[in-house]
Fold:
Amino acid sequence: MTRDELLDLIPAYALGALDPDERASVEALLQTDAEAQLLFADYEQVAEWMVLSTPARRAPTRLQDDLKRRLATSPQPPAARRIIPLWTLAAAAAVFVVIVGALLLTRPAAPTTPEQLFQQIAARPDALRIPIAAAEGIPASGELIASPDGTQAVIRVANLPTLTADQIYQLWLVDDSGVMSGGLLSFPDPQRENFIVLPISKPIQDYAGFGVSLEPAGGSPLPDGPSGPRMFGVSVQNS
Structure:
């Protein structure tokens, strides 16, 4: 399952309504994903409140059928299944629907742009913040912001030089293995604030730093690093 599909399962996970495979997948995501951890904490609180204070409402047929299927396939003796009163099943389905509906309404919208992701991470009081270091003669300013677990990071930068038709910016990631390209960058207006989502494959703390260089239109012709002047850098291990 994709990350978004697993996030959508968190409400049911908070209710204990997943099968073993689904539960294991969600728990694996919760081990490393800061957004998933926050959502689960929110859902636990809302679920507790809804169970105590929300009157039952009739569940849509699709969700009633789904809940009946889960209850019917749960590991319990046949006799125990036969004595479940119908009103109990209906009430459980209604509570399930009301809680899931409330959780979906209170779940924050997933960020759709680099700027939105930056703002979402920045709202965390324990977010990691590192100012960028502009190269000599370059008036660039901004900062890198990362989630507390280091799995998501975005750079906000402004006041970069305007590109000519044969130029482009290139992002670089630096770790113990050396320097690797993070992709080519082009901004409609480099002077304004722009946002760069770092394509990291491990926690940001495992990188030495990041940088952006000015390159020919096709990117650096060198196989292992920039060929043009450095615009700015971000040092992680010295922060």
